[in-house]
Amino acid sequence: MPLKIRLARGGAKKRPYYRIVIADSRAPRDGRFIEKVGSYNPLLPKDHEKRVTLVEERIRHWLARGAKPTDRVHRFLDAAGILKREPRNNPKKGLPGKKRQEREAEAAAAAAEAEGGDGGGEQAAAE
């Protein structure tokens, strides 16, 4: 049974509250889980002590049994010193999309043609 340590959403509309749970990876996000091992309240300030609460002993137990944390939970565990998380690197994240790159290339070509001063070249090619 592949186990995950993940967030299960609770709370009202626009007022999220998450339980950190151990669940079978095939179970629904907010559905059946094995054990609750913490909570996360994103509405609290980042430095508030109750924003993230963890039951470290049980988390270590489930990690030893092969449970894999999701990325967000892995961040919490790294902040608590339970598990080390390597920072990710996506060098293409900040680049513009394909269409914008095409438009910029066309604009650069048009600007180069206009600067070239070869206005008669187009008319000669049309004849």
CATH level 4 superfamily of the domain at 3-80 = Ribosomal protein S16
Poorly predicted ranges (pLDDT <50, ≥5 residues)?
Answer: none
- From the N-terminal CA to the C-terminal CA, the straight-line distance is 74 Å
User: Quick check: average pLDDT?
Assistant: 90
Which bin fits the share of residues in helices?
25-40%
Please state the overall shape, judged from the principal axes of the Cα atoms: elongated
The string of secondary-structure elements, in order, is: EEEEHEHHH
Keywords:
single chain; 127 residues; alpha+beta; S16 Ribosomal Protein, Chain: A; 5-stranded mixed sheet; elongated
Explain what this protein looks like in three dimensions.
- This protein has a domain of 78 residues: S16 Ribosomal Protein, Chain: A.
- The chain is 35% helix and 24% strand.
- It contains four helices and five strands.
- The protein has a five-stranded mixed beta sheet with strand order 4-3-2-1-5.
- The chain is elongated and about 75 Å long.
- The model has no long low-confidence stretch (mean pLDDT 90).
Write the layout of secondary structure elements.
Layout: E1 3-12, E2 15-24, E3 35-40, E4 52-54, H1 56-64, E5 68-69, H2 71-80, H3 98-116, H4 120-126
Parallel strand pairs: 1-5
Antiparallel strand pairs: 1-2, 2-3, 3-4
Brief sketch in words of this structure:
The chain has 127 residues and is α+β, with helices and mostly antiparallel strands. The protein is 35% helix and 24% strand.
